[in-house]
Amino acid sequence: MKLNIALLAGDGIGPEVIDQAVKVCDAIAKKYDHEISWKPALTGAAAIDAVGEPYPDETHEICASADAVLFGAIGHPRFDNDPSAKVRPEQGLLKMRQKLGLFANVRPTFTFPSLIDKSPLKRDRIEGTDLIILRELTGGIYFGERGRKDDGNTAFDTMTYQRFEIERLARKGFDMAMKRSKKLCCVDKANVLESSRLWRETVQGLEKEYPEVEVSYEFIDAVAMRLIQWPKGYDVIITANLFGDILTDEASVIAGSMGLMPSSSVGSKVSLYEPIHGSYPQAAGKDIANPLATVLSAAMLFEDLELVTEAEEIRRVVNKSLAEGYVTEDLADGGKSYKTSEVGDWLASNI
Ligand code: IPM
Ligand code: MN
Fold first, then answer.
1. Among 125, 136, 187, 291, which is most exposed with the fewest C-beta within 10 angstroms?
2. Domain locations in the chain?
3. Which InterPro entries does the record associate with it (predicted)?
């Protein structure tokens, strides 16, 4: 197969982890006879420095015409402590999600047999966890009306949802649930928020179209607790943008490391694949960042293109590296560790 993949390395450790995913994908392409044409493009602080804006039109053109987008990370500390900054790297990510219509963010949470004891949670609670958080990604409080009034002394952000936004996300959730254990949980704050009541109403309206799916409705605060208390109680979770942002960071604790969790963002056209961790600026340029989340995101990319054997091959070598201790320092427990680039080379050469 001929594949045209937009490559957005971004900021911080982004370029280093992306390099490893490229090595792995190229090894897969060689083994399974595909031809990947990488199309690098600028995003984030790197793009602000080069052209003054975090998601330039040229980058959008490259993404929109690609078969898939592989993305590293975005964010730079020089903007975090400057509340007056007019352009921020994160705006690039939000603009990209919106312009590419990536309304659903798929964030799986699972455990790795060799890492169970890395999690601060007890083995019997987490072993066998396999859930997906489906986060709405182009609406809600991230994109609602915001501003200041009273001479800057009052600030507001609004959580707005339209029925069609909830419905298209919920349908993806139902479809996923049908392929899995047929359990769907809608997470909201319907005891307080009107937008959450519209979520419930919309999801309830879809229930009759999916009679085999068992649907539950839970409040976000309670789920924040139950998710780490008994993660095996969940299968597919659907939730609003901000709630999903928070829950997915929390869920990464179950796997033992944020450096391991992949994600995809899908809409009606091109899809994007990225690790859920951020740009981790303290580690940038040191060749120590864990590349596995990005490599596993590439596995999701192949899977969505129906190249399932290729995806499984990537997961196999990742598991092998974990089992054999060929890992970066965050997973080494003070024992022998390897550089980011060494892990990438090892994975590629084991394909
Ligand atoms: C994420 C990130 C982003 C988000 C930031 C960087 C804007 O935290 O992808 O989860 O909040 O969506
Ligand atoms: Mn986040």
1. 125
2. 1-102+262-351, 120-255
3. IsoCit/isopropylmalate_DH_CS, IsoPropMal-DH-like_dom, Isopropylmalate_DH
Ligand 1, atom 7: closest residue by C-alpha = 90
95-121 residue pLDDT tens: 999 999 999 999 999 998 888 888 899
Whether 279 contacts 79, CB under 8 Å: no
Measured in Å, how far apart are the chain's first and last C-alpha atoms?
A: 18
| Residues having C-beta closer than 5 Å to ion ligand 2 | 245
> Residues marked as binding for substrate?
97, 107, 135, 221
Query: CATH topology for 1-102+262-351?
Result: Isopropylmalate Dehydrogenase (3.40.718)
Q: Measuring CA to CA, how many Å separate 236 from each of 135, 179, 189, 250?
A: 10, 10, 18, 16
- DSSP result, 183-210: EEEEEE-TTT-HHHHHHHHHHHHHHTT-
Annotated binding-site ranges for Mg(2+): 221, 245, 249
CB of 258 within 6 A of ligand 1: the answer is no
Closest ligand 1 atom to residue 274 Cα is: 9
User: 292 CA distance to ligand 1 centroid (A)?
Assistant: 19
User: 120-255 is classed in which CATH architecture?
Assistant: 3-Layer(aba) Sandwich (3.40)
Structure pTM?
A: 0.94
